[in-house]
Amino acid sequence: MSDYYAELAQCAELARKDGWRHRLEQWLRFEVVRCGLDIEEGDSVVDLGCGTGRFLDYLGARRKGDYLGIDKLAHAVEVAQSTLGADYFYRGDIFEESIDERGPFDWAVAIGTLVDGSERLDARRRFDALGRLIDRLEELGCKGWALVVLNREVLDSNPLLRLEPCLKGASEKEIRSLAEHRGVEIVVEGQLFPTDLFVFSRHDEEAEGLSGRLHEESPHRAVVERLRAEEGEVDPADIVAFWIQAGRYEQARRAWEKLPDGHRRKALLGERIRSFDGHRTAPNE
Q1: Helix, strand or coil for residue 103?
Q2: Residue 10 reports pLDDT greater than 70
Q3: Which residues are 196's β-sheet partners?
């Protein structure tokens, strides 16, 4: 196991074990995928690179449908099996034929799968890995699929992120080129989270309908409401940080103004909000 994966294994927070900074960031990816595909109760889902199984946990009542999560990391699969059920998860390679035998699946998802802390890939090998992943999603998802990857252009613009070998990412141009070559119709959303590209292929819906649903239903607000409903007492600074990370600076400012003056994170969060003035990426909601 590489140092990257060994470090993740030691994290107590399950979202951190999966490589995310905070559960709200992980939940946002899940909500965008759920909303974009319009996953319904009873739909079958195959989750490529499932980590500790938090997507199954997020789907909640939809667990009644068939679900299979695959990951190569033993520590992640062990957590998933012990907390959510052994039958839902499989440790192995996402390209194994035994996975096809567990299908067919309505939907195939890969959320953050284009990450590998064991080696640094050059541009050609990274491009090939992305193509293989799209092919696999297309094979497994009868109704369609969703892919969430880091935006390569964002990674390349940040000197620190650019040096991190585990963060592969992809550019929208690469994704569209691969899809066009394969004759696959896709929708690419790049404004829902500043660092991510959300890629959807639904076999029964026009691109305009899928994109419109994503923006009209506001997955960001759904995540905030879910947190409040599940946890009751929520540190309001976590909400401010979430809006900042999501690039929703007006929402962040409004939430920040409600923080008590004595809150230990208010000054720092205020500085972060002010540093983004003039660089807002999304309209008010």
Answers
A1: coil
A2: no
A3: 150
